[in-house]
Design brief:
There is one protein chain. The protein has 9 helices and 18 strands. The chain is an alpha+beta fold. The protein has 3 domains: 8-119, no CATH class; 126-261, Jelly Rolls (Sandwich), CATH 2.60.120.1440; 270-339, Phage tail protein beta-alpha-beta fold (3-Layer(bab) Sandwich), CATH 3.55.50. The longest helix has 17 residues, at 62-78. The protein is flat.
Length: 340
């Protein structure tokens, strides 16, 4: 059986009590599917290492908790389901206290009583909290917000979500994300990216703006969105197949038709398209997407224009296609790609 990787950020969100019901279903799968066992065990070990330098107050019942946790692991490894837990004679040193603290957290994760209690919470209790999501380069995730909006968060991207007291749903995005919004005319869904605010009017759309990018881009695949400057001046109302590009330097913008509306947000399915873009723009995208670094020995090569499509290609295949198209040789040293 092949192993599966857990979403560590999702586990932290759960421990903090910020999960939606659908996110809790994913947590339940982590705990019941043996394919996640190795990844979950590594997460536990890594958390213990982080806790090893932390200061903990004296807490009652730590010896018993630690004993229960150790016995729980031993029982799971041996396939034993029913035995009494020995708790006598446990000597607690500093590391054991730390492990016990981690154990208490993990026992909460596994506890069905907490599961039931959280699922039965009122939406207002959850809505009052701010959620934070971040992807490092080379990583992409799918996020289900408490309002059931699905977000495909791109590599090297950060998203913050908060539901205001009046019910408005507020998102701050840095990077790239594709939104499938659960529309509610009584609770507006707005995304702020730099000086541009995008207001959902019942739609699916893609937004892109990385630090250093010249343009903020908004593209719609279904429904429509309202695009505002600094939350006030309306720039456009975009319908399916339309794309707005806002120049952050000149504060000028333009609306164009997409050759293929399905390509907006196609990166979430592993499809990267480049149309007469500079090699530097292409490698910047690959750098985020695959989590590697590019270095040019000939700066003039950065301006070579290329057009290509990468459809679920491995890093090796992507490098071959891009460099052959550009006519630029390369060498690879681990995560460093040197273009000559």
């Amino acid at each position: 059986m092949s192993s599966k990787e857990i979403d560590r950020q999702l586990l932290h969100i759960y421990i903090e009590g910020n999960c939606s019901t659908d996110q809790l279903l994913q947590i339940k799968e982590y705990l019941t599917d043996e394919a996640y066992r190795e990844s979950l065990h590594q997460f536990m070990q890594d958390e213990w290492e982080l806790l090893s330098n932390a200061e903990f107050p004296a807490l009652p019942g730590m010896p018993e908790q630690y004993a229960k946790f150790r016995f729980y692991l031993a029982r799971r490894n041996k396939g034993i389901t029913h035995e009494k837990v020995p708790v006598q004679g446990v000597r607690v040193r500093r590391m054991q206290v730390i492990a016990a603290a981690a154990a208490a957290v993990l026992l909460l994760i596994a506890g069905s009583w907490l599961w039931r209690a959280f699922v039965n919470r009122q939406p207002k209790e959850l809505a009052a909290k701010e959620l934070y999501f971040h992807n490092e380069p080379g990583h992409r995730t799918t996020v289900l917000l408490p309002d059931s909006t699905r977000v495909y968060l791109g590599a090297a991207s950060t998203l913050r979500f908060k539901q205001a007291t009046d019910g408005d749903r507020l998102v701050i995005l840095e990077g790239q994300a594709y939104f499938e919004v659960q529309h509610d005319e009584h609770r507006p869904f707005t995304v702020t990216t730099g000086s541009i605010t995008t207001v959902d009017l019942g739609t699916a759309f893609n937004i892109r703006y990385y630090p250093g990018d010249l343009n903020i881009e908004v593209a719609v695949t279904s429904g429509k969105v309202q695009v505002l400057h600094k939350g006030e001046k309306q720039l456009a109302v975009l319908e399916p197949g339309k794309r707005l590009a806002y120049d952050t330097l000149t504060q000028q913008y333009g609306v164009t038709a997409l050759a293929n509306a399905d390509l907006a947000g196609a990166w979430r399915k592993g499809l990267l398209t480049f149309n007469r873009q500079s090699l530097k723009e292409v490698t910047d995208e690959l750098q985020r997407y695959y989590g590697v670094r590019f270095q040019y020995t000939n700066p003039s090569a950065e301006n070579i224009l290329i057009t290509t499509v990468l459809d679920n290609k491995s890093l090796e295949d992507a490098l071959d296609i891009v460099t052959l198209t550009a006519g630029v040789p390369f060498t690879r040293q681990g995560t460093l790609i040197v273009l000559k």
